């Protein structure tokens, strides 16, 4: 199965267990609103790619790890969009969860999606109990305290903090968990060795995000976006210019690919990552920088 | 170790892993604010009592199950107290988390406490991987969709719902998980058989709560509390009167004690539960009803 279809099928299977007549319908609808739609599934695709490079000997474990990473990502977006944080109206081209379903259901949707990550692991990894603890630990560390997504967001409430550094870390943590979880799901003996791949790709993705914004609105070229500046978010284009940012992105992808640990599918994974990241730079900018 | 001390020690150990200089200090402080203080620890005590009745052959697993249940309970209180839900100023005699730390940290504190439940299980049950999946599943079901605490709270956003039934279920679900998790942590072959004990005690606790309110403010006797009526919460004293409520409470405790499955420590557990629940009815009311 093509990995995009495999991820959607795994997400659908996870939702089938919670979308029962016994549950409150609006919560289920809000959870679906948060997870299905225009998401690129970059993190679960990465998780799958790593597991496949390691042999993917237990596909149910791989699927559940990929689902866990994606629903955590969606959970963090739902809570981050709320009025007390970014107060966002639109996400992935649709109204945000709290705009459609109200704040109480937005809180509960984020909560229930966090829990769904662990529910999915509990069911998907049951045939490989010796992998379960590691996977639960990886996924929990990626979202909780002291260094997961929640902790990253909580740094915004601290008086003294290097915001640029924290934003880099916040993006990186879930990418690093995606690769580590992919390794752990497939029984790789040293899943931690996979974290550098994820961390570097997370950083590259952030640079690509800055480049996409410039491509979408060239007038912003070289100027920090208003919200970035206000929130202290780093912006690679503002710091390095378009050409510098593309150079930085390529260097990060190179470091990512170079960090891949020995495994049966190392070459295929390298090719896969170069292919995926090749689409990171918008064509107009790539031509412009060539 | 006396079970109260054992629970505090286990909670402290769980917090030690998140209270590191690497994490944002206010988040850690807010999490501690939510968990430590005047809580009665009724659910983790129950979890421990069941595990001990089943032999408690793996104390680290028992401790982590008890911690998971308690921090989930605290997480749900933090989110339920927020302005978009109950908008509560005081909890357990202290200002609520959002009053002290603000709404953003209250959201994140609830999130991180949910995650802490699973982090604690991942570490505490690592020596018994075959128990891990079951415990993660029990704990996740108790808080998530379609029938855990989040789902219970989400019913309030539905237009047609039997609110009295939903409030009973909402209290019962975590008590039932506490007893089921206690059995699972100690390797009982059929942990589901322990759920009736928790569900009945949860219902008894709710009746006791109504009785305590009357004891604290006798003028409320027989009248539904304003908030209960507004939110459609059931109130045993309003429905049955003081004597009727005490009779109902005793019947529920009897059903709870009678439901205890065969296990090595059945008699000791029955005595323990009669002792704990004996303190449920405030003395003044017990005398009055005698």
UniProtKB/TrEMBL annotation, chains A, B:
Gene3D superfamilies: Farnesyl Diphosphate Synthase (1.10.600.10). Keywords: Isoprene biosynthesis, Magnesium, Metal-binding, Transferase. Its EC number is 2.5.1.1, 2.5.1.10, 2.5.1.29. It comes from Roseospira visakhapatnamensis. Its cofactor is Mg(2+). This is Geranylgeranyl diphosphate synthase type II. Pfam families: polyprenyl_synt. It comes from the Bacteria. GO terms for molecular function: (2E,6E)-farnesyl diphosphate synthase activity; dimethylallyltranstransferase activity; geranylgeranyl diphosphate synthase activity; metal ion binding. Belongs to the FPP/GGPP synthase family. One of its GO terms (biological process) is terpenoid biosynthetic process.
């Amino acid at each position: 199965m093509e990995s995009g279809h495999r991820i959607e099928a795994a997400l659908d299977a996870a939702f089938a267990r919670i979308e029962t007549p016994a549950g409150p319908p609006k919560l289920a609808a809000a959870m679906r609103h948060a997870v299905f739609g225009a998401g690129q599934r970059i993190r679960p695709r990465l998780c799958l790619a790593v597991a496949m490079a390691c042999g993917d000997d237990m596909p149910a474990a791989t699927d559940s790890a990929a689902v866990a990473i994606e629903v955590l990502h969606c959970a963090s977006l739902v809570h981050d969009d709320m009025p007390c944080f970014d107060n966002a109206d639109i996400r992935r081209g649709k109204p945000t969860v709290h705009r459609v379903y109200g704040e109480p259901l937005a809180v509960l949707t984020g909560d229930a999606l966090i829990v769904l990550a662990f529910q999915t692991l509990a069911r998907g990894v049951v045939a490989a109990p010796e992998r379960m603890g590691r996977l639960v630990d990886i996924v929990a560390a990626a979202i909780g305290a002291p260094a997961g997504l929640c902790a990253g967001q909580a740094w915004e409430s601290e008086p003294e903090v290097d915001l640029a550094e924290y934003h880099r870390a916040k993006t990186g943590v879930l990418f690093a968990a995606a690769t580590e979880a992919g390794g752990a799901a497939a029984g790789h003996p040293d899943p931690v060795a996979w974290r550098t791949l994820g961390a570097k790709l997370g950083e590259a993705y952030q640079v690509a995000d800055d480049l996409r914004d410039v491509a979408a609105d060239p007038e912003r070229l070289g100027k920090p976006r208003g919200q970035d500046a206000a929130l202290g978010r780093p912006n690679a284009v503002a710091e390095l210019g378009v050409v510098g940012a593309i150079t930085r992105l390529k260097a990060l992808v190179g470091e990512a690919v170079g960090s891949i640990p020995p495994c049966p599918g190392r070459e295929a994974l390298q090719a896969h990552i170069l292919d995926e990241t090749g689409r990171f730079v918008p064509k107009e900018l790539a031509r412009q920088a060539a």
